[in-house]
Amino acid sequence: ARALVGHLCRVVEAPPEGSEDLEREALNARERQLQVDAYVRLREVVACGASSTADASRGRKGDSVEEYVLKRAYNGLARDVCGFAGGSANPARAAKAAPSLAFATSCVAELYADASPDAAYRTAFVYVRQLALKVRQALATKAPKDVGDVLCWRFLNAARAWAAALSRRGNAADDRLGELVFPLCQVLFGAIELAQAPRYAPFRVHCAKALHGLAATAAVYVPTTKCLLATLRESL
Fold this sequence. Notes:
The chain is mainly α. The protein is built from 10 helices and no strands.
């Protein structure tokens, strides 16, 4: 699982448009195929873990095979991809990382959708809580470092990944993962509250878009009008 996640959750740079370097294009195609193959194999591992007995599929830390794969997949996404796409010290590489982020986020969301409800909930709860603690710390201290840990692309991409995962599962009454829709909404609202400066307008819009997806998933009203109108006034 560790090796497969390493293949899946990484930045694969697309060849430049109009490139005549066939060897580079072939290498790029092979790298992307490795990502696809890794995703397919991870789904098989999750399926095998779901069908195994509880005692036989427990690891050293008490995690089931499913939980181990889900944790590895999200940690790989957050560590190796989320920090590059959208913004970084190298804007050119950040732009090239966007397709890898979209693909890896979709794959991780699908892994959570395929997992059993209990395993998906137990794993997702830990990481959504981590995001919530970052927001609470930043709101409480308003320290530049704490606020910077929230108002960054790594945090935003991680929150959007969880919004995608929860949207894949839906909010059925028998699906425990749906219970995390409300906490994740509160995390996004807290991030919006921290992003009051005009330069964070794009950050607020991305958060509002994630909230709209969660609202559609949970079939509830999520009040984003105030945030969006304030952002529109700033742009005018």
